[in-house]
Write a structure and sequence with these properties.
The structure is a single chain. The chain contains 24 helices and 11 strands. It has 727 residues and is an alpha+beta fold. A hairpin with a 2-residue loop joins strand 4 and strand 5. The two termini are 43 Å apart.
Amino acid sequence: MSLLVALVITALAVLAGGGVADRMGSGGWEDPDAESTYATQVLEREFPASQPNLLLLVDAGKGKVDDPAVAAEARRLAERLDAEPGVSGIGSYWGTGAPALRSEDGRQAVIAARVEGDEKAAGEILERIAPEYRGTRGPVEVSLGGPLAVQHEMQTVIQEDLLRAELIALPVTLVLLVMVFGSAVAALLPLGIGIVAILGTNAVLRGLTEFTDVSVFAQNLTTALGLGLAIDYALFVVRRFREELAAGAEPRTAIGITLRTAGRTVMFSALTVAVSLAAMLVFPQYFLRSFAYAGIAVVLLAAAAALILLPAALLLLGDRVNALDLRRLFRRRAASGPEGKSTEDGEAGAGWARTAALVMRRAPVFAVATATGLILLGLPFLGVNFGTVDDRQLPTTAESRVVQDELRAGFPGRPGGGLTVLAEGGATPDAYAGYRERIQALDGIVRVDGPVTAGTGGGAGNHAYFTVVPEGEGVGETAQRVVGELRATPAPFDTSVTGQAAVLVDSKDAIADRLPWALAIVVIVTLVLVFLLTGSVVIPIQAVVLNALSLTAMFGALVWVFQEGHLSGLLGFTPTGDIETNLPVLMFCVAFGLSMDYGVFLLSRIKEEYDATGDHDHAVRFGLRRTGGLITAAAVILAVVMVAIGTSRVTNTKMLGLGVALAVLMDAMVVRSLLVPSVMKLTGRLTWWAPGPLRRFHDRFGISEGGAPATPPPAPVAERDKEPVGG
């Protein structure tokens, strides 16, 4: 019955989530409450021409933009664009004669306009009018650029890349699952759970778009976590179920044991991942908040499907879960025996036990060497430069990227690199002139234009604005310093500063203000959840520190590869010399949550054995033996999904996919295999220490994988681990 209900709900989710990408935005990088955001909104309202978001690049080919035929066609295009509903603030080289709107070789010039409305409304207008202007128009060739065109094209590219990533990830994932399980039936179950989680999350996001802005980038996380975590959870549930069947349990009994053991671990894992992602809700940028919405929804849906739908399917299948062992086609003897006995009790499990024994015998060496290596890998991040998203996120062949490249290379000045100072309250010409002189005297200023007032720019009488061009790059150190100095310069009226550098300064300030709260949420809740799982105050601290170390390689690669440009040719992106400000926060929350996911699975199995035997060293070896192969398989599968996401042509998506894939693999193959057992060996029985009051609290409220509150462990079993580690 539950499976039938799930089928109906999934079908409804497909209908509800259809077209969700079309309702998403591609912005959300800025703080909506910042000074720069306020100034931009006022300028858009009072002086639309000061904030153009659509540029028509008019190319005269072999001619010149001042040729009579070219000029006549350009004026006709500008007049036609001015008559379009929802378009205002038309300005062009042919209308103003401004040198900044004409290329240095005289073959190209620009028509600028403001498309009104929010991101979605403006995008719809662009879709409607673009075919009427793009392409050959008489003696000229017209291409579309500007922030609106960049955002719209980015949204389109992301949707196309996401479909391709899914087409890559799904078959590869299925092959890997068959290799892990052997049984084609067992392999299809995790994949089905992942698809249910993805479809359900799309429906949730579609509902959220009715109330708030949601970034289109969040769909990538939905696919990655939907497949990755659902497969992780299903792997552990199915593996434990098959293990109980192999031990002789009836299907219904096996399901009960599985839910009391692996099921509770899945629940704890989902909570830790959801908390890590929920930390992004403290930030004001809707780009980050969107990932929290998508991540929390997909994690909870994946866990619910693994704990409700999957047990129902397993109960229905019973022993048939081991049917269609495809590995027998390639090997004489399958890794899983006829009874479905898991490889964790065979050669693979013995290998992990031997690894754990070796690491624990040389614990100081492995702990120091591994920690040092991880810290060294993270050192490049000390040189990180933060920047903003621009058209160079797109492939070089994208139309809006081509337009912006032409503007950068062939036009005077630095398009988009200036700052705008909004003046409110009205003032005399002398007051405006005095203020202009003061800001012109600041260090690092190339020139100051303005003021543009009501009579010259169309704004209301109590509004005016100045355009300030700083030295260097548009979002460079000089421009960011000038933002602060402009805001500190006294004026006889209210001033607000905007522009790319101002948006960057405000975004960095917003993240810096909220980051301690986000970190506190992640750390405190992680400590509490791991304590409830283990009853120790040492293990939660170890978990937080070791998880943080697992992220160092990702952050180091972020700078070495994407900021400095190493491997840019191989990976197909344009390095800009900086990292978008929001991205490290996003990657930390995602990767930390996934790291805790694997940590919970390993710790729960170690805790279960320690409760049963009281032998610390044996419990660590046993935990790694039982989960090492499974964690590695889960990490490889999740990495495959993230790498598929990383094939995106949009740099930030590529960065997210490849960076998180690296973090996941480092966590599973280095931290869980080497650092965790070596550190737990060094701390010995102290690992399980907790003060009396906290131990009594855990005895009453804590949960162990065994399904009952933990009790004080029995005395160590002497010489327990003298037996061969592979036996």
